[in-house]
Specification:
mainly alpha; about 65% helix
Amino acid sequence: MSKKLFSTIAIILGIIFIILAIYYWVTPAGSLASYIPGFESGSTTVHIKHGLASFILALGLFAYAWFKGGKK
């Protein structure tokens, strides 16, 4: 598989994790989809740490795509 394909996949996953981080930051735990880690029925707290972890993972994926996709 080519470096460009891996870079594209990393960018797409990074965007998904950015969206997930925002979802964690604006949605209370009781309102999260039940298949999302952190769902707590009836809870009104927001999962800041889950969102931060997702955001950091997205930044790592973007860095991977940047370093692998660049010219030699």
